[in-house]
Design a protein that fits this description.
498 residues; alpha/beta; Alkaline Phosphatase, subunit A; four-stranded antiparallel beta sheet; binds zinc ion
Length: 498
Amino acid sequence: MSIPKVFVLGLDGASWKILKPMTKELELKFFKTIFKKGSFGDNKSVIPPITGTAWPSIFTGKNPGKHGVFDFITVKDDFSTEYNSSFNVKSEFLWETLEKNNIKCGIINIPFSSPFRTKITFGEGDHLTKDWVNFSWPKSTTLGIRADNPAFEKRFFEVLDIQFKEIDFVLKNKETDFFAINIFINDTITHFRLKNKLLIKKYLLKLDKYLMDLYDKIKDESNLFIISDHGMHETFGWFFTNNWLENNGFLVFKKKKKYIFSRIFLNKKLFDKLVKIITFMVLKTGLIKFVGIRIKKLFHRKIKTQFRDSQFLYPHIVAKNIDWKKTKAYGIGSHGVIRINLKGREKNGCVEQKDYEKVKNDIIKKLKKIKGIEVFKREEIYSGKFTKQAPDILFEIEDGQYKSANSYNLKKKEFTKEGPNKIDADHSIYGIFCCLGKNIVNKEIKCSILDLTPTILHIFNIPIPKDMDGRVLTEIFKDKRKKLFQKKKIFEVGELSI
Ligand SMILES: [Zn+2]
C-alpha cells in the first residue's frame, strides 16, 4: 500500500449547517475526530458559489478573474450553452505544478480536471464535461439516472460504494504523493433529498464510516483534507432574473413571442404521449426497434434542452424572444448574473459605452431593494485579465435561500415558491474545511477555498506563485512545521502555454 503525503477528499456542497448538528445527533465518529484533533472551519467560496467556478478556483488558488471560468458553461452566439472543460481554465492546476516538481499525483473526478492537459501519474476524468445525468467518468461511477427516478436512492448508495472502492484501489495499486477525489453525489443528495431526513441520516452514517476507515488507513503518513467547494442551504423559493429585469424596464420582449410552437412540447404529459404514439407507429410500420428508440431519445433530448416545465421558458428560448434594440440588460447562466447589453461587446448590444456605468448603477440600485440581497460589480470581486469576460453584475439572495434562475416565468412573477426543478436545497457561500494529520493542530479556523493550493504547495516545499490569491494556512501546522514554511510567494508563474 502506498499512502500519499497529502490526500484531498472533496465532499461537494458539504455544509456545517447540516454536518455539525448531525455529528451530534448521529455520533458521527469521523467528524467528532476532526473537532477533537484536527483543524476545521468555514471555507468561503467564490461568487457565484457554484461547482463549475469553485473547483477551478480551489485547484489554481486563484480567483475566477485569473483562471477565466465563471460558470459551468460557455454561452455561444445563439445563446445556446456548452459545458466547459479543463481547456477553459486558463491557469495551472495544482497537480500540473506538482508533477513538474516530480511529485506523483492521482486525480479522480475533480470537476474540470479533464481532459488532463499534461502528463499525470494517475487520473480519471470528471463528470461535468459530460451530460448532467451522466455524472462521472468512468461509467462505473455514473449515477445514470435523474433524481426523480424511483431507483435514484439505490443507485446513489451503489455509486458511493464504488467511489470508496476506487480509493482503496488507488491506495493498494498506485504510487502517489498527492491524491485528490471529489464525491460529487454529496451535492446531488443535498440538492434533491435534504428534506428526507431519514435518507440523509442513512447516508451520513455510511459516509462517516467510510471516512473513518480511510483515516485509520492513512493517518500515520498522510495529511487528510476534507473540503467542499460551497455550502448548501434549504431553498425556500426561486427568483427569475429576466422577469425582474422586464418588470423593471431593463428588458423588453418582442410583441409576438416565438414560443407558441414550442409550447406543444411544454406539456410533459402530452409530450410523453406524443413520443409513445410516434414510437409505436415507427415500430408498427415495420422499421427496426433501433430506429424507434433513437427517435424516442431524440425527442427526450429535445425536451430536456428546450423546456423544463410548462410555466418556464429555457434561457435560450428567452433570448430568441428578446427585443434587443430596447433591452439594456439580460441574465443568462447558472446563477444570479446580469449582463449589460453593451454595444460593441454583446452580439445585439444597444447600450452606448458612455451609458454603461449609469445603466449598471441603476440596476444595482433597484436590485438592492430586494430583501436579503447581496449585489456585486464584477470588478469588486474579481481581479485579473479575464475579469472583463465576467457578467457585469452578480448577486446572491439570502445566501442561497432563493435560487436565481435565468429561465423565464410565463406567469411573469419574479419570485415563486416552485421553480423549473424540484430541489430541496441550493448553494450557499460557506463550505467546509477540515484537516487531520500528525503535524496539524486542533483549531477552528477561517479560510477561503483559494487557500488549499498554496497550503499544499507549502507542504511539499514548493514556492508559491506571486499571483496566487489564496494564502498558506500556517495556523493549521504545529510550530516546527510553521517555521519551516514561512516562505511566501517567491516567484511569478508565466503564462500557461497549453
Ligand atoms: Zn459543488
